[in-house]
Design brief:
The protein has 123 residues and is an all-alpha fold. The chain has five helices and no strands. The protein is globular and about 40 Å long.
Length: 123
Amino acid sequence: MKISITGLLLMVLVSSVQARDYNQQFATYGAGDYPCSVYSKARAAGDDQEDQIRQWLAGYVTAFNLIIGGTYDIFGSTDFNGMLQWLDDRCDKYPNANLTNTVARFTEVVYSYRKQVKPDQKK
């Protein structure tokens, strides 16, 4: 039986979400492996590293929307800049926190406010 690459990717992503561990017992890649202090410095500098982090964040929330059932848009009533502001505040408070865990916490905070269907569709 052939499994499409997309199907295989979805299975891996779904199993990763179920296995996420706040004690750092999971593999992180790219900017997600940075501590919040690196995120904060990149935001202050507004340099190429900030662009890299923004791209990683966009990929994270896009994947979240894709793999978490009943979620059209995790941002709900906020937007990308609202997430950045939330991360700025959180990272100022917890500079040693892993960026992946910090973004995961953001998704937990806004989850109940998420858009569950495309705006032009009814529930």
